[in-house]
């Protein structure tokens, strides 16, 4: 049985399959493992950030700091490794600790100062971006033999495609995210808070700790996305990844998660990422279309999904009302 | 003293908010296996006491003993762990989760650190079976009715805590059958030795189920008595601190046929909407109070929505003073000098953050249109005169209305419509959720308004209230107007018979 709440996810999945089928009909090459491998690698950093965003939105919040935290992490890692000769692993660890603590701080402010997430993470967005400029305003290239080894590691698909380490990291993050959301008490608490904060509190959900952990998770995954982005571009640049948080939010919403919180699936976000990647790939294959068409299609999809979600809520409310009418 | 220690004992509890005392030196004792009703008017301190016992608030003074040991529940989770579980009236469970997820939130059975959904499902089924509930526990909570959600909430609270169960207004949104089902569950729990505290406005229910009552008034303890030795009149005077004035209309003395009261000024003919209310005729004379009775879901509120233009009628005509009018929106209704006090005062009635004065002039401003604002001196004058004549307390027109008690909010909404001098005022459950004192005042006000020539439609689930104030009562059942009672037929028995459809409405 399909729950009404999972209908948006099923719809996204169906749209993705149909869209992919249509693309393959026009460009049979798009079915190749090479295309799929590239699609995963190209969107790895976005996917990782979007997993964190999914938890935030499920809890009824929003995290606008994601793009800035990615930029900060990438500049920080590039400068640490490139200019100070720190071992990449140490730099990664330091970057992850900083971004996680940054998320903790935002979560604590949201919970204990009762400031809306939009406001807190907007401030976080400026703060992280400013910190990135402070580290360096230049594009800092990064070379290190350890990084070369990392980038050289991949699994070869039949047909010539490569599942790179970056894509693997994203897939692992998604797998862990799915399990955490659906199979842990932390995940259940996230859904509970997103459903109704006050009820959740009265039912004994540790709202404070959970909120802090949600934003810490988003901070951690933004940091991880920043590391992946650094490896992907082999450089760190403080002006990069402007507005990535909005792409992540788009992927989450297209994946069927309600912006009001409480309903959605991490797996849906994965499909949302794939769908965005598919549109970009199609534009590359076509060759004549401007890359802005990606934004236009995403915009249309978002509209369609918001309307769809509204319709589903309206429909299930009405069905419930009818059923209760019969009981009376 | 039957047992060496009471199950739950609170001594000298005190609590104040921002310097204003909400509870002062209150004692409360709950024995094992009893149902203990906590009563009092609005603002008596019932909720505050409950919230202290269940760890939502921290007390300023006093001690709490659970089975003789001093405890100090600092938050909800701590109180739950001690054995004190609560079911709140409004915010209860989570609609976006399944039944099983709701039952086991925060204590899900786990295997290898992961939630074990199979065990959770089986245990949920077993748990609900104890309450005679056989439902799909993997369905979303939102797909079940309020009554079933209530049982689920109780099942969760008892399973979680098991010693003390606190119910805050559990029957407020249940119909008679559902209340019966709930009480069966509560009696069963009492047998099992759970101590149950119940807050309710319905005195009938108190006498039906409680062993003992504790009455609070103005934050102080009035007394605690066994229900068997407490006549109803005594209980009410404990709650009010004064003798209740009975308001009853002598229907015998009234004209036998309704036509004697003059020509109807407002007529609805064959008025109805598919899926909402079947077409009905309704004539309203000046100065008449028409009651609307029926069970929950019988089409009571839907009738009001139609009359006030919130729902658009798809058949029939409306006539005012012989002229046909189209009431297709609330604006149109207001232009025709209709007024409507909805049932959901908090969500549909008041604008919480606006002052009492702003709330009172809202409808008048709407009728005048936004181009002609009411001057602030006129607003002050209007507000003050209604605060005085309706006895709204505290008499401070600048206070945000959300800080007023339910009864005073209701009076302010009444004032909002009275300012517009309506010809027809529709009151949907005007006395729900307000205390007995304010209740009597509102009934008195209804009397006065109709003596001044205003027509009123009063929708209520309290039959005594309807028979007391209404000249005629329209009875609804299954979204149809099934009977109209007036004169000598107008008794609570008559209404019940009409609802039941035994067709005895002709009899006296």
TrEMBL record, chain A:
Where would you find this protein in the cell?
A: Cell membrane
Q: Which residues form the signal peptide?
A: none
Any one GO CC term of this protein is: plasma membrane
Presence of keyword Transport: yes
* InterPro entries in the cross-refs: ABC_transp_permease
Q: Main location per UniProt?
A: membrane
Q: How does it sit in the membrane?
A: Multi-pass membrane protein
The UniProt keyword set, sorted, is: Cell membrane, Membrane, Sugar transport, Transmembrane, Transmembrane helix, Transport
Q: Does the keyword Cell membrane apply?
A: yes
Please list every transmembrane segment annotated in the UniProt record, as residue ranges: 6-27, 39-58, 64-84, 91-112, 118-142, 163-181, 212-232, 244-276, 296-316
The GO terms describing molecular function are:
transmembrane transporter activity
- PANTHER family per record: ABC TRANSPORTER PERMEASE PROTEIN YPHD-RELATED-RELATED, INNER MEMBRANE ABC TRANSPORTER PERMEASE PROTEIN YJFF
Q: What is this protein called?
A: Simple sugar transport system permease protein
In its UniProt entry, the species of origin is given as: Rhizobium wenxiniae
Automatic annotation (TrEMBL), chain B:
Q: Where in the cell is it found?
A: Cell membrane
Transport as UniProt keyword? yes
The ABC transporter domain, residue ranges: 8-243, 261-503
Alphabetically, the GO molecular function entries are: ATP binding; ATP hydrolysis activity
Q: Does the keyword ATP-binding apply?
A: yes
Bilayer topology reads: Peripheral membrane protein
Signal peptide extent: none
Please, which domain of life does this record's source organism belong to? Answer: Bacteria
Question: Where does it primarily localize?
Answer: membrane
**Protein name in the entry:** Simple sugar transport system ATP-binding protein
- UniProt source species: Rhizobium wenxiniae
